[in-house]
Amino acid sequence: MGHLFTGVLTEIITPFNEDGSIDYKMAGELIDFQLESGIKNFFVNGLGAECHELSTEEKLELLKLVYARTKGKAQIMACSFENDLMTNKKLLDLYAETGMCDAFCITAPPFFRHTQKALIDYCGQLIDYAKKPVYIYNCVQMGALFAPETIAKLQKEHSNFRGYKDATVDVVHWIQTSNLCDMENFDFLGGCDGLDGVYMTLGAVGCVSFMAVPFPKEMKAITDAGLAGDFKKCLEAQRRVMVIRNALKLAPFNAAYMYAQKFTGGPVVLHSRMPADQDFVSDAAKAVIDSTMKELGY
């Protein structure tokens, strides 16, 4: 079977107007900027896109927009991070009806801790139900994390389960999981911009990256070097990204990532649907970001 997705999958941000409506014009410009930067994969309606704030209709509109801008130039993974099986199945059906994505991504049910047996049952049903290849996103934002044995069992028992995005920030977990899975026919993808280069040296074939929204070329440098087997260059690119990331993490949620877009020439997103303070970058944080970017040559 080989690999379906390799390299960077940009977890595209949703740009909003001040009144909370989606700025579809800027969304299109953001996709164009990614394509011009060499990005060939898109992760649509993920957590970074504020999927928890989007209506079903808005999710479909964003998918259609990404497809219209990338048709023939990129692959699309559409996320279904809904609260229950029924709602996920409905969204997966709607995604499939558009014919505009190459794969789906699901995750654990939010809010509550689920047993590993429950996760196997829940995700197994969605994997078998889906009409496209399915990926699992393992992230701390949900109420439970998938154990390595759970990922391996799902891979062995469900042929439509084709890949795994790991945002556990746990290298031991990564190694345990990769030891149990078929690495040649399963897409291991990094899910934390602070570790993607490390994961490339451990067998990842790419990453899903929110850092790629303002810094697509920098993230592409990590995966290109990793896929070429040049791990020294890969880790050098990772260290550069880590310096940037350290500065951006001085502000909450997406705020600093939006602010940082001015350094790389992409459209500058100004608003989210989060509380106002989540959009706020303090003057002190801006000073550190500006200084950091100047030191890096931007």
Descriptive terms for the model:
eight-stranded parallel barrel; 44% helix; alpha/beta; 11 helices; single chain; TIM Barrel; 298 residues
Tell me what you see in this structure.
This protein has 298 residues and is α/β, with parallel strands linked by helices. The chain has a single domain, classed as Aldolase class I (TIM Barrel). The chain contains eleven helices and eight strands. The protein has an eight-stranded parallel barrel, surrounded by five helices. α2 links the parallel β2 and β3. It is globular, with a radius of gyration of 18 Å. The relative contact order is 0.13.
Question: What's the helix and strand layout?
Answer:
Elements: E1 7-11, H1 24-36, E2 41-44, H2 56-70, E3 75-80, H3 85-98, E4 103-107, H4 116-129, E5 134-139, H5 148-157, E6 161-167, H6 171-180, E7 187-190, H7 196-201, E8 206-209, H8 216-227, H9 231-248, H10 255-260, H11 283-295
Parallel strand pairs: 1-2, 1-8, 2-3, 3-4, 4-5, 5-6, 6-7, 7-8
- Summed up, the domain count is 1
Global geometry = globular
Q: What's the total helix number?
A: 11
Provide the CATH superfamily: Aldolase class I
- Rg, nearest Å: 18 Å
H and E order: EHEHEHEHEHEHEHEHHHH
Determine the structural class based on helices, strands and strand pairing.
alpha/beta
Determine the fraction of residues in helical runs and give it as a percent range.
40-55%
Taking the alpha carbons of the first and last residues, their distance comes to 41 Å
Largest sheet: 8 strands, parallel, barrel
Q: Tell me, what is the CATH class?
A: Alpha Beta
